[in-house]
Amino acid sequence: MPREKKFLGFGRNILFTGMTSFLTDTSVKMVYSVMPMFLMSIGASKTSLSLIEGIAESTASLIKAFSGFWSDRIGRNKPFMIIGYGLSAIIIPLYTFVVSPLHVLILRFIERFGKGIRTAPRDSLIAGSITGGESGKSFGLQKAMDNSGAIAGPLFAFAMLSAFPENYRLIFLLAGIPAILAIFVLVFGIKEARKKKEELFTKFQFREFPSKYYFFLTIIFVFTLGNSTDALLMVKANDVGVKVALIPLVYLVTSLVAVAVSIPVGAFADRIGKEKILIAGFTIYAVVYFGFGITTSTGAIVALFALYGLYSAATDSIQKAYISDMIDENKKGTGLGIYNGLLGITLLPASLIAGTLYDKVNSSVPFYFGASTAALSAILMAVYCCVYRNHK
User: What CATH number should be reported for the domain whose range is 11-194+207-387?
Assistant: First the structure.
C-alpha cells in the first residue's frame, strides 16, 4: 500500500475512519443511552432488555466473520463499510415509531446487522493502513473517536431529556442526522486500497492461523461470558438512586475517561507489550464489576463508571491491535472478523445469564459473576504470556 501523508500524526484512512465512527457513535449512543429506560416505559423487563441486546448483537455477529473473510477474498473493504454504516443511518430514526419491545428487537437486529457487515472490514482497513508498527496507537485513535461519539451522544440526549422530559422519540428522530453525515465522510474521505489477485486470501483453513490466536480467542470467550450489556450498568445506576435524566451523563463519564487515555494507552502498549496492558484491563474490569455488586452509593457509581472507561481503553482497541500484529496481511479481515464474531455470539449467553440473575436472584450477583470471569481471564492471559514468551 502506498505511504500515506499523515494528518495529526495519523494516515488519511485511519483519521477519516475515526471521524466516520465518531459521527455514527454519536447517533448510536444518543439512542443507546436512553433505550433501557424507554424499553421499560413500554413494558419490557430487565430480562427482556438483556435478551433484546443479546439476540441483536449475537445473531448479527455471525456476519462479522463472513464480512471479514469476504473483504479479504475480494481485496476491498470500503463497500462493506458503506453498506454497514448506511444501514445504521436508515434504521436509527425508525425507533421513533416503535410501540413494543418486539419492534425494538427487530430494528436493533437490523442496525446491529449493519455493524456486523462493517466492523471487520473497517478494522482490516485500519490494520492495512498502519505504518511504523503503531497498531496500538492507531486502534487507540479509533477507540478515542468511538468514545468521543459516546460523549456527544449522551450529552445531546441529556439536553433533550432536560428540555423535553421522557420524550425519547424526539431523541431517536434527531439521532439520524450524524449517522447520515458519517456516510458522506466515508464516501469522500476514505480511499480504497485494492490488493493484487495473488495476495488475496481465498480459502479459509484453520491451520492458516497460529495456535496463539486460538488460545487468545479462548481467553476472550471466557472474559466476554461475564461481560454483559452495559444497559444493566445503567439500570443498576438507576436502582441505586441516579435519576433517569442524569443516567446519560453518568454513562458519559466512561467515555470521557476512555477518550482521554485510549491513544496514550495504545502507544504505551506498543512500547511495553499489549499482553501486559490486557492483563491490567481484565483486572480493572473485575474490580469495577465487584464494585457495582456491592455499592449502594451514587458517588461510588460515578467513580466506577470512570474506572470502567480505563478498562475499556486497556482492552477493546488493544485486543484488535494485538490480533492485527499476529496475523498475516492478507488474513487480517478474516482474523478480526472471527474475533468480532466471537464477541457478539458470546454476548447472548452473557446477557441472558446477567439478566436472569438480576431479575431472579438479586442485582449484585450478575456483577459478581462478571468479576469472577474477568479475574480468571487475567490469570489465563498471564499463562498465555508464559507459554508464548519466546513466540513472535
Answer: 1.20.1250.20
